[in-house]
Specification:
mainly alpha, 14 helices, Multiple sugar transport system permease protein, MetI-like
């Protein structure tokens, strides 16, 4: 056992202090948003943004959550995130594992084809025509899922992780009579849980934050994802006035700003709670692809 010197302990302590301070600084914007959402509109106008609410109020959340649109958007986003992440990981692993097998015919050509899509894009007009006219996905929930089922960058990360696994494991299984499908699902996938958890998080964040595709392809309000609804709220300050219709109390200030902050808190909450469950895998997965390129 190596004994730590006093200098090592001091350096380690300084590193912990520095990381703690950095973490606290990163929390300040988030705490400010929460504080603003729990404040009255007049308090923010008079006092600005503070870490603790000067005048506590839940009015913004009451106005926001009484509208059924937010619940529909939540359901759409949860469905898109869960189904999209699962399908995307299936497609990603199904493409990444064969490309990690050196004996695959045309392996380099397929790798180049996938890499080529990272450099060049067909353009917005061509993509719009393909998705809306030829695939017929316009105004369906699948337009938020199917076009994003494969991300070349994530695929290469997954492929590189498969490459980092000792080849002798797969060769031993083949000697025992296992085929490639068995090796992939019963051997490679369980070994690759850190990489799968990490890349699943990348996909989940991408699906959760989708709004641009909804703006282009979806006109049915029942299919609006959460982030697109936020954009509509931010673009139209009158949203809060519509929610507060009927309020005629003298001196009442419509909470447009606090409603925006409350909407932000409501929408980012679930994705933040996802991190603790994936943390043990995420730390290991940070080195995805670093062993072999």
């Amino acid at each position: 056992m190596i004994k730590e010197s006093a200098g090592d302990r001091l350096l380690l302590s300084l590193m912990y202090v520095g990381i703690t301070v950095f973490a606290l600084v990163c929390l300040i914007p988030f705490m400010t948003v929460i504080s603003g959402s729990l404040s009255t509109e007049g308090s923010i106008i008079r006092n600005g943004f503070t870490l603790l609410p000067k005048e506590f109020s839940l009015e913004a959340y009451k106005l926001l959550l009484k509208d059924s649109t937010i619940y529909k958007s939540y359901g759409v986003t949860i469905f898109v995130t869960v189904v999209g992440t699962v399908l995307a990981m299936i497609v990603t692993c199904a493409l990444a594992y064969p490309l990690s097998v050196k004996s695959l015919k045309y392996r380099n050509s397929i790798n180049f084809y996938v890499f080529f899509t990272m450099l060049f894009h067909g353009g917005l007009v061509a993509t719009y025509l393909l998705i809306s006219k030829y695939l017929g996905l316009k105004d369906t929930i699948w337009v938020l899922i199917i076009p994003a089922l494969i991300n070349p960058w994530n695929m290469f990360l997954m492929r590189n992780f498969f490459n980092s696994i000792d080849e002798s494991i797969g060769e031993s299984a083949k000697i025992d009579g296992a085929n490639d499908v068995y090796i992939m699902f019963r051997i490679m996938i369980p070994i690759s849980l850190p990489a799968i958890a990490t890349i699943s998080l990348f996909y989940a964040l991408a699906f959760w934050n989708k709004w641009f595709e909804a703006m282009l392809y979806i006109s049915n309000e029942d299919l609006f994802p959460l982030q697109y609804l936020i954009k509509r709220i931010l673009d139209n300050a009158a949203f809060a006035n519509n929610l507060a219709s009927g309020v005629t109390a003298p001196g009442y200030i419509v909470p447009t700003l606090t409603s925006r902050l409350a909407t932000t808190v409501v929408t980012i909450g679930p994705i933040i709670f996802l991190y603790p469950f994936l943390q043990k895998y995420f730390v290991k997965g940070l080195l995805v692809g670093s062993v072999k390129g």
